Amino acid sequence: MNSAYHHRVAAPGELGDLTSSGLLSTPANQDSSGSPTLIVPLGSTEQHGPHLPLDTDTRIATAVARAVAARLGAGWLLAPALSYGASGEHEGFAGTVSIGTEALRMVLVEFGRSACNWASRLVFVNGHGGNVEALVAAVGLLRTEGRDVGWTSCLVRGADAHAGHTETSVLLHISPEVVHVDAMVPGNSAPLAELMPAMRAGGVAAVSALGVLGDPTTATVLDGERYFADMVDGCARRLLAWTANGHGMLI
Predict the structure, then answer these.
(1) CA–CA separation, 155 vs 132, rounded Å?
(2) How far apart are CA 14 and CA 25, in angstroms?
(3) What is the pLDDT of residues 218-246, one digit of tens each?
(4) Which residue ranges are recorded for the region named Disordered (predicted)?
(5) Which among 25, 48, 113, 140 has the fewest CB atoms less than 10 Å away?
């Protein structure tokens, strides 16, 4: 099944495509203040089992952010994704590149300080749970400095933990060409709360030799379409509320 993501229908303005002089002279890039609201996908580069790509979290965050920016319309500008995050729990697998919580916090702070020189607002759309601690700290600091910055996450109620049914379904919807269907195998489907003690000591590798928490073999395109729509609807709703009331700490 093809999606609007593949065709990039009603694509929003994208920061990387613009020139500096054209950025603030194009009405479509301006909100009521005359400057853009910058929406920044935040993901990770980490293992997602034998069947999903290392950029899964970044890919999902980018697709959600693009769809949200297109829905919200004029004044919402999509930034290139930040593709490295705090992924220490996946260090036992090749391909994982984690910069850790403190480095990520510093990157987000400096990103916000710089971008807010010309953007009226800044919001991070997060695709990786390990980034939350850094996001909370960075956004809190930026707001105490007087910058209008917020964050939100790509959420699915009842989702499994990692590279299982949920993420695999979403990738089958937005990027089916990168899913290695023949390599799908069930992972450890125990509740995350039960796995956390072992994971704190030895990372994901301590509870799943293949790095999968959940069952990707049950994933479907239709479920992925529904999950993706829920992510976009939830992020758009939270961002509209944010712009209306000015609260920076989103979930």
Answers:
(1) 13
(2) 14
(3) 999 999 999 999 999 999 999 998 888 76
(4) 20-53
(5) 25
Query: Which of 221, 209, 162, 217 shows the shortest CA–CA distance to 185?
Result: 217
Contacts with 10 (C-beta within 8 Å, 6 or more apart), sequence order: 4, 70
**Which of 147, 245, 169, 167 lies closest to 212, judged by CA?**
167
- The low-confidence residues of the chain, meaning pLDDT below 70, are 1-12, 32, 246-251
- The residues near 3 (Cβ < 8 Å, ≥ 6 apart) are 173, 174, 225, 228
Token pair of 242 as six digits: 């944010």
Token pair belonging to 113:
């300080």
In order of 4, 11, 66, 163, the CA distances from 7 in angstroms are 5, 9, 12, 25
**Domains along the chain with CATH numbers:** 11-242 (3.40.50.10310)
Predicted pLDDT of residue 150: 95
CA 162 – CA 184 distance, rounded (Å): 13
- pLDDT value of position 23: 86
**pLDDT number for residue 216:** 98
